[in-house]
Amino acid sequence: MNAPVNADAPMRGVSPWLAYALALALAAIQIWWLFPVSFLEGRGLFFFDGDIVKDITGWLFFNQEPWRLPLLYTPSLNYPDGISIAFTDSIPLMALLFKPFVASLPPGFHYFGWWHAVAFAGQALGAVFLVRALGCRGLLAAIAATLFALNWPVLLYRFGHSALLAQGTVLFALGCYFHASRGTWSAARAAVALSAVCQLALLIHPYLLAMCYAVLAAFVLDEGLRAGQWLLQLRRLLTAMLISLALAGVLGFFAGGLSTGGYGQYALGLNALWCGGDTSVWFTCSAGGGESYAYLGAGLLLMLPIVMLAEWRAVLSLPRRFPGLVLVCVLLTLYAVTNRVVIGQTVVYEFALPALLHQMFSIFQASARFFWPVGYLLLFGALAVLLQRGWVGALVVILALAIQWYDIGQRRDDILVAARAAEQPFDAGWQRAMHGVDHVAMYPAFGCGDLDRFAYLPVQYLAAHHGATFNTVYAARSTTDCKAKHALFQQDVQPDQLFVAPAALPAQALPPAFRTAAQHGQCATLPIAPVFWGVARAQDLLACRARPVEQW
Predict the structure, then answer these.
(1) 210: which residues sit within 8 A by CB, 6+ positions away?
(2) Quick one: which of 452, 444, 426, 454 has its CA closest to 528?
(3) Label partner for 86 (CA 20 to 30 A): which of 224, 258, 356, 402?
(4) How far apart are alpha carbons 532 and 530 in whole angstroms?
(5) Cβ count within 10 A of residue 481
């Protein structure tokens, strides 16, 4: 993977400016095709569907706060304890960039529509950067790498989890590694660049940070094995880590606790690489779906056996040529598979981990995601080999790209539909209920009862939209002191407060504040319809204020 392009290779080298411009042009075409302007502006049902409401409300609460340390902390959400919006997947990079301009932005503005364009553009640029780092600098290489990356099944499957669309960070990290391994960059330059990519990933999502650090670790190992100077390599790694720790502290990643547990729940199935489920035309077997999804696509499944047969000696030599990278890939794969080995939904083998190790591994519950860097290496390694084998290799790449495009067409169609669905308005009663409210308190607090977890999201959004504080938070694996959170409901509701609880709860199951307010005609039943995967889950909530309903 580190040889220069053959002299007789088709589409010989083009300037980097042309290659990157072409990547941006192809990304712009796909963005224009998939996403209407209304979507990019943040309008539509998609932005009220599932977890993305959490992401948006984190930003809406944050942008109403003055600057403080930690930078991402807001006391208004999970009031009065507060929370760092690093735990609401609100893409800290964008939040920090837009916060200085809040006064000039339209009411209710959020950046999550435009973020999709940024992420797809970054994916395209990262693809060209990586394929050129592998020595493939031709026009065909730029086109094939960009289109494969933009239509990578794992990328399109992440539609709905905005931060994790920034997989271009992983491509840039791998590109830095190969620039160093091929000698086109000095080791010092690659180390600085890799550290910078890691800090960028920290500003987007912790999973991407961990993946980029895995690439940095591979670079350090291989550079140490090649050049020695192990103290220098260790210093490079520790310097990057210290920068990340300092940045994480300033941002607020250590503010508030997160629960751990569940390692093995989202394991990478042994059949996950060739089972695309309903996202594939040909390979429709299921590997579990959800966080276990890691389908490579029919095009890559065509290329891989061809590459392994044509270059089997080179494949066997990979552990010798890239020992650190191969070791990291093996470890990432084992971590993704977990101690709970599955094929589809069937557990074929399971073994117990020591409690401490299980707790450490559970920091990243969705373990199957850690195969992503390995999957990208398989893709770009196959492209690099074929693009350096003249017109025969080029024809195989073109055929594989066409097959890949067709194979995942259903997923693109799903995105087309989801991006155009019109949002459903809130019941008018909520506008009256929220008038003059400074604090919204929901019972039970998130994580403290059996209420549908998605029911919190519309109320969290209403509180943020009206500039009120919210007593709880729908966030990633948050821990809650239920007794402390529910103490408020032992007192009467105050004039500037709105108390909310499930309408289906019997009176005796409600705290005193609700029972007192109901006796005085101060409660109304209001409908909400939280959306999950485009399907509304309608239910009623009891909303109480310190005045009769007719005076709201």
Answers:
(1) 364, 370
(2) 426
(3) 356
(4) 7
(5) 12
Angle between helices 372-387 and 168-182 (to 10 degrees): 50
DSSP H helices, 388-537, are 390-407, 409-418, 428-434, 456-465, 482-486, 512-519
Kindly report the three-state secondary structure assignment for every residue of 354-376: CHHHHHHHCCCCCHHHHHHHHHH
**Ramachandran angles phi, psi of 426, nearest 5°:** -70, 150
**Residue with the two structure tokens 């101060």:** 522
**Residue 9 reports pLDDT greater than 60:** no
Q: What is the mean pLDDT of the chain?
A: 93
Residues 296 and 273: beta-carbon distance below 8 Å: yes
Predicted confidence at residue 476, as pLDDT, reads 64
End-to-end Cα spacing for the chain: 69
Residue 492 to residue 546: CA distance in whole angstroms: 8
Q: How far apart are CA 44 and CA 424, in angstroms?
A: 8
E strand or H helix that includes residue 346: strand 346-350
Block residue for tokens 């008038």:
435
Residues 258-279: tens digit of each pLDDT: 555 688 889 999 999 999 999 9
Contact predicate 96/71, CB 8 Å: yes
Query: Under a CB-based contact definition with an 8 Å cutoff, are residues 21 and 87 in contact?
Result: no
From CA 552, how far away is CA 539, in angstroms rounded? 22
Q: Is 527 exposed, middle or buried (0-12, 13-18, 19+ CB in 10 A)?
A: middle
Return the ∠ at Cα 208 (arms to 205 and 213), rounded to 5°.
125
Q: Dmax over Cα atoms in the chain, in whole Å? A: 86
The answer to whether residues 516 and 35 touch, using CB atoms and an 8 Å cutoff, is: no
Strands 535-536 and 340-343: unpaired
Question: For the segment 363-396, what is each residue's pLDDT rounded down to a tens digit?
Answer: 898 999 999 999 999 999 999 999 998 899 999 9
Q: Please, are residues 361 and 367 in contact by the beta-carbon 8 Å criterion?
A: yes
Q: What is the pLDDT of residues 79-123, one digit of tens each?
A: 999 999 999 999 999 999 999 999 999 989 999 999 999 999 999
With 0.90 as the threshold, say if the pTM is over it: yes
Which residue is listed with tokens 């408020």?
488
Whole-angstrom Cα distance, residue 148 to residue 167?
13
Please compute the mean of the pLDDT values over residues 16-20 and round it to a whole number.
95
Element (H, E) at 73: strand 73-74
Q: Is the pLDDT of residue 8 over 70?
A: no
Token look-up 């959490």 returns 54
Alpha-carbon gap, residue 286 to 270, rounded angstroms: 11
9 to 1, 183, 389, 394: CA distances (angstroms): 15, 21, 6, 8
Dist CA 20 CA 14 (whole Å): 10
Band (pLDDT 50/70/90 cuts) for residue 3 is: very low
CA 89 → CA 51, 93, 260, 341, 474, distances in Å?
9, 11, 17, 29, 11
Residue type, 41: E
* pLDDT in the model for residue 532: 85
CA–centroid distance for 374 within its chain: 17
Q: What residues contact residue 412 under an 8 Å CB cut-off, 6+ apart?
A: 34, 151, 156
